[in-house]
Design brief:
This protein has 481 residues and is an alpha/beta fold. Helices cover 48% and strands 12% of the residues. Strands 3-2-1-4-5-6-7 form a seven-stranded parallel sheet, with helices on both faces. Helix 2 links the parallel strand 1 and strand 2. The chain is globular and about 65 Å long. The protein starts with a helix and ends with a helix. Bound molecules: uridine-5'-diphosphate. This is Glycosyltransferase. GO terms for molecular function: quercetin 3-O-glucosyltransferase activity; quercetin 7-O-glucosyltransferase activity. Keywords: Glycosyltransferase, Transferase.
């Protein structure tokens, strides 16, 4: 171990094993590597393999000698994670395996045996309180990173208030009733705009309890990092700061990374599936801002009926489209039945004439392509930020977690598009696409263009996120002594 390495802080970064989490925390890892902080990045075995297979992590991080990829031991659920039950299986097995492993990793004996510098602090995913427990036990400072929006986080955090006030449970009924007890969002949120977990009938269900208790533990962390920026979520952040004073907004991370690396505006994607770049060639042949990009992220699943409603709506709108249809978008009983696109869609001439379909797209590059003028999205937080940074208006069809809140903010607060939640009907799909891409195109593009400027300004020198990352780095230095 060199003398320099001994003087440097050594941060363990521990994301929840899901694409959006691993991806954005890897961007944070790179930002900290640029500040010469030593990083151990902890992932499950299957994510380790996917990172090596599908991303340029090896070449990208080879210039940072202080970066190490470390894997958790076997025994963690490796099946599908498209349903809440499956995600819970992953979460529970992760807790079991991680606890003894983290204890061992944080002990100084371990550092000596590995001839590395001891870990001086942890940045853990804000839903992994197992790391918080071990960090407190071993007296290692810990910072939380939330991969969701600040507005989504705050809605989660206020759930006990909703229960006390009798606003929950509502068991999926009368979804247009407005909610009074999310501080700062009074009358904005309806039942349908609360995080999807709030639709439960049983407040004792394991997934609901997990989400509730994980979020409530956040104030125990030394600091809280968000992938967002002040001009977008400043108002909500002012409420969060009352319970977690040490909040760092350093996003949009992918844009921030580009500023700090000082490279041209190229993709920072750490995609965990193989990207089909042929769609860029197709986009090159389209007119400016005429294509609707359709993608529901890495988790969302749809029924065959819903997929066909989208298809009819798309085709009837007459708008050109680039559509990501993941092989597992429609769940099947076994992998053999998996198929990227239903046959009837492929056979239809009109699909080829007006649309292009891929199994997985280079999303950042797609959104920054001049031909793209709209995004039909599931409102995942990474997708939302990527769209904001490129000034692309959105139609939101949220699936779960914070996406219900994000889509409400896109439609009603930021005015960056339309919220289509809880409906999947070809006539509505068609109408919303026409509104976004034709009738109200200028209005949405102008608003999205203004937010794009603010997003980019925040990650430039003297911008709020740029400044907050410097503050975070100073904080890590201080707590690591
Ligand atoms: N993504 C991609 N190609 C695709 C679809 C998605 O690279 O075809 C990336 C997208 O750029 C984003 C991430 O996958 O960074 C999805 O994260 P998000 O938070 O939006 O949704 P999740 O997958 O967690 O539901």
């Amino acid at each position: 171990m060199s003398e320099l390495a001994q003087l440097q802080p050594h941060v363990l970064i521990f994301p929840f094993p899901a694409q959006g989490h691993v991806n954005s925390m890897l961007k944070l890892a790179e930002l900290l590597c640029l500040a010469r902080i030593n990083i151990t990045y902890l992932v499950t075995l299957n994510f380790h393999d996917r990172l090596l297979l599908h991303t340029d992590i090896k070449s990208r991080f080879s210039k940072y000698p202080g970066f190490h990829l470390k894997t958790l031991p076997d025994g963690i659920y490796q099946g599908k994670t498209n349903t809440v039950d499956e995600v819970m299986m992953l979460y529970d097995s992760l807790r079991l395996v991680a606890k003894p492993f983290l204890r061992e990793l944080l002990s100084s004996d371990q550092a000596q045996s590995e001839k590395s510098s001891p870990i001086t602090s942890i940045i853990a995913d804000g839903i992994l309180s197992v790391a918080l427990d071990v960090a407190e036990e071993m007296d290692v400072p810990i910072i939380y990173f939330r991969t969701i929006s600040a507005c989504g986080f705050w809605a989660y955090f206020c759930i006990p208030q909703l229960i006390d006030a009798g606003e929950m449970p509502f068991a999926g009924k009368d979804m247009d009733v407005t909610i009074a007890n999310v501080t700062g969002m009074e009358r904005l949120l309806r039942r349908r705009d609360l995080p999807s977990f709030c639709r439960v009938q049983d407040l004792g269900s394991p997934d609901f309890r997990m989400v509730l208790s994980e979020t409530q533990k956040s104030p125990r962390a030394w600091g809280l990092i968000f992938n967002t920026f002040e001009d977008l979520e400043g108002s909500t952040l002012s409420h969060i700061r009352k319970i977690c004073p040490n909040v760092y907004t350093i996003g949009p991370l992918h844009a921030h990374l580009k500023t700090r690396i000082q490279s041209p505006w190229t993709s920072s994607s750490n995609s965990l599936w193989e990207e089909d770049r042929s769609c860029i060639g197709w986009l090159d042949q389209q007119h400016s801002q005429t294509v609707l990009y359709v993608s529901f992220g890495s988790f969302t699943v749809v029924t065959r009926e819903q997929l066909l409603e989208f298809w009819h709506g798309l085709v009837n709108s007459q708008v050109r489209f680039l559509w990501v249809i993941r092989p597992d978008l429609i769940p099947t009983k076994n992998d053999k039945e998996r198929k990227s696109t239903p046959e009837e869609l492929e056979l239809e001439e009109v699909t080829k004439e007006r649309g292009y379909m891929v199994g997985w797209a280079p999303q950042e590059d797609v959104l920054s392509h001049p031909a793209v003028g709209g995004f039909l999205t599931h409102s995942g937080w990474n997708s939302t930020l990527e769209s904001v940074v490129e000034g692309v208006p959105m139609i939101c069809w949220p699936y779960f977690a914070d996406q219900q809140v994000n889509s409400r903010f896109v439609g009603e607060v930021w005015k960056l598009g339309l919220d289509m939640k809880d409906t999947c009907d070809r006539a509505i799909v068609e109408k919303m696409i026409r509104d976004l891409m034709v009738e109200r195109k200028d209005e949405f593009l102008q608003r999205a263009g203004e937010m794009k400027k603010l997003a980019r300004k925040s990650t430039e020198k003297n911008g709020s996120s740029f400044h907050n990352l410097d503050r975070l780095i100073e904080g890590i230095m201080t707590i690591s002594i």
